[in-house]
Design brief:
InterPro entries: Slx9-like. It comes from Coemansia guatemalensis. It is found in: Nucleus, Nucleolus. One of its GO terms (cellular component) is 90S preribosome. This protein has 197 residues and is mostly helical. The chain has a domain of 34 residues. 59% of the residues lie in helices and 0% in strands. The protein has five helices and no strands. The protein is elongated.
Length: 197
């Protein structure tokens, strides 16, 4: 079967009439001043026509951008950097695991200590019960003894007479006359026990 000739499709429209697309005629040549005059502006440049310095259009977070010169350029440098990031990540994970393990160990130590103290708590309760019973029994005996001292009128009168004599002796004592407050303080320190405060 013979080949069929296809019609050629045109992808561009006709040429534009701008100065770029027009070729100079044979008579003009390239050195013609009219050819370049259409390409240059007719007015003189002003300060507003100045073009700014070149600006990088790459985003700053892009790895190989101009703003980040510390990025590795070779394949080996990239591999080393990737390995370093991986090691840092592993170290951080191990550190977190160690911290959790320490917390678990502290918690188990506390619970073991509390378990060991349960027997001590029961013995402490027994001791406290014994002390309370002792205090209550002593309190009853002392109340009876104090009440028995001054029961009759005759005994109270004798005690009052003794106190009057003692008070007179205290008032006549030279230490009391020199400094009464210091003497009273010394007497209380000698007679009172530290438990009765």
């Amino acid at each position: 079967m013979p080949r069929v000739a296809r019609p050629r499709t045109k992808y561009h429209t006709t040429t534009s009439s701008t100065a770029f697309s027009q070729r100079p005629t044979v008579g003009e040549g390239i050195s013609s001043p009219n050819f370049f005059s259409s390409l240059t502006p007719s007015s003189k440049p002003t300060t507003t026509d100045i073009v700014s310095a070149p600006v990088s259009l790459a985003p700053p977070n892009e790895p190989n951008s101009v703003t980040n010169p510390t990025e590795p350029r070779t394949k080996k440098e990239k591999r080393v950097q990737r390995h370093q990031r991986w090691v840092e990540k592993m170290n951080a994970a191990q550190f977190a695991q160690r911290q959790q393990q320490k917390a678990r160990d502290r918690q188990s130590d506390r619970s073991a200590l509390i378990r060991g103290m349960s027997s001590m708590q029961s013995s402490l309760k027994e001791v406290q019960a014994g002390v309370v019973a002792e205090v209550l029994s002593l309190g009853k005996e002392t109340k009876k003894a104090e009440a028995g001292n001054v029961v009759s009128r005759k005994a109270r009168n004798k005690a009052a007479i003794r106190e009057e004599k003692r008070f007179g002796q205290v008032l006549r004592h030279p230490d009391f006359r020199a400094n009464p407050l210091a003497t009273i303080r010394q007497h209380l320190a000698n007679t009172l026990t530290p438990d009765s405060n």
